[in-house]
What we know:
alpha+beta, Aminopeptidase, 13-stranded mixed β-sheet, globular
Amino acid sequence: MSIEVRTVDDADRWNELVADAANPTAFHLAEGLDVLAEYADADCHHLVGFKGKEPVGVFPVFTMSKGPVTAAFSPPPDLKVHYLGPSLLDRQEMKRRRRDKRNRRFVDACLDWLNEEHDPKFTTLLTPPGYDDVRPFVWQEFDAKPRYTYLVDLTRDREELLSAFSSDARRNVSNNYDVAYTLEEGTVEDAARVVEQVRARHEEQGEPFPLSTEFVTDLYERLPDGVVRPYVCRIDGEFAGGSVVLEYGDTSVCWLGGAKTDSEIPVNDLVDWHCCVEAMDRGQSAYDLAGANNARIAGYKAKFAPDLVSYYRLQNASRTMSALSKLYSRLK
């Protein structure tokens, strides 16, 4: 039986399907997609594949047009969203051949819908970790580039995890410091402070930082409670640093933060350890350090004993990178 693709615009129904997805992220939720669409000035299409009446996969796609040119994205650009893309529903165990066939038919049906309804001149996607079979896109003339992130396994007990850290990381999170500091989950105001700290650090390095504070605070206020969690370190009661964590399914993602500070204690190490401990206490199985693609930053993240996990950037192969860059510039 072939797979039919339809859009599901009812937020509750969409979120029910996302809850059954094999590789869901916080941004797959309807509330997150709404915020992305608003800040990207894009149209979001909540694609669901059905085999008869049975839903088999979800695939949120955004379209953006400039004059006669339409592009498709998942996620939209310039919002520092690491992953989105398709996810099969994880409702039953299937043998390899059947799962491969379902994945291919689902992807083909979604791309057919996209081409028929919007005819994008190119499409670019970032898959979630765990969605590892991108062959249907390659067979549809997409270029697939592997990307990497680090996942800390939180299924170990606390002491076992700490013992796996590098020696400097263990020392940094275990030492007693002659400083009055606290580590805690903060407020929406703390999420804004994290964003502003990261923006200031980018400005110091002469690097752009396109993310607005309002975007992050809107996510905090509109996503379900407990999805956006700002964690902060305060020294003598004053904000010193922190991270904004996105938590959905069984994974906590260190989305924003970790800006270098001038504090006399290792703020970022302490915050990451606190995030791991808090996530473990909530029964989360993984802490995603959100990126292992930058050699300098990867060196810091690797000391927390993570596993290296791949995801993919997919772009249709019919357009050159120069054409892609031009269209990105026009759409910004």
